[in-house]
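Intended use. Records like the one below are meant for learning the mapping from a protein sequence to its folded structure. Do not use them to infer anything beyond what is encoded.
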Amino acid sequence: MLLKDGKVVLVEGNRCQRGVTYAHSEVKPKRALITVVKVHGGVLPVVSVKTSKPIPKDLIPEAMKAISKISVKAPIKIGDVIIKDLFSLGVDIIATREVEAV
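Structure written out for the chain above:
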């Protein structure tokens, strides 16, 4: 991959168009974030969560700090929005597991 002024000008070695798309996306890489959030009053101490869309890779440590400071109250259903519009990115933090109340 050849960059000029931060833009991809040449991609080599790919065998299909998806390789070109991947090379472009890796200039400013994004990743889905999967972690857990503390739960109060539930049958489990934490609930698994993920971002609704990939976020910039360089924001993952900051996102982990923000998520580690929150806790939610049971019951929690799959798909519940735990954090709405994280860092104004248009990305939500969503529960991926149910946690029933005690």
